[in-house]
Amino acid sequence: MELVWHGHAFFTLRLANGYVISIDPHDGLSIGLKRVRVESDLVLVTHDHFDHNAVEVVKKPSTRILKQFYGEVRVDDVVINGIKTFHDKHGGARRGENAVYIVDAEGLKIAHLGDLGHVPSGEVLNKMSKIDVLMIPVGGTYTIEPDEAWSIVENLGPRIVVPMHYWVKGLRLPLKTVDHFLKYAEKVRVDKLNTNLVSITPSNLPSETTVIVFKYS
Known about the structure:
By secondary structure, the chain is mainly beta. The chain has 3 helices and 14 strands.
């Protein structure tokens, strides 16, 4: 599986058979980043905010779209679990609900936390157990703060952690940089890549938690 980061919370999963899953696409220009056009077979939207729901840049006529979906569903050869959380610390009163997605494909469990705004309860965290790859917001302001993000990482113990939703050059949102999160990761391995993609298989997962920081390009 090839995991590609397109900035902010926008990721693409490209499976070995060419099947493409896009999660939380943005249109680029409205947030100060580059526009990316990716034809996708399945699109997952964690919540209906403009910087996460630009399905027009990733869809084709046959694209399946799940928007703020809760529950379990099989789409083609992929199993999706959507878990209800909130975009704030007030039960959604300020920014609404947020779907955490767990994608089960090619022997891997990959979680995308969307714009999670609170540390989930133990019951919710239990539903997210045995995650291989965790994509987690770390920039604060609209989501959990860097220290809260790290507490979730420690609780879940994923094999790979991919920070997202933080400030990069050009982004017109007042978020913290990834370095605010990385200061909590001193006791684990941190790989800063010179690319925005990585290939992941069950056989090449690290034995201990590793943080992967993509280069936005």
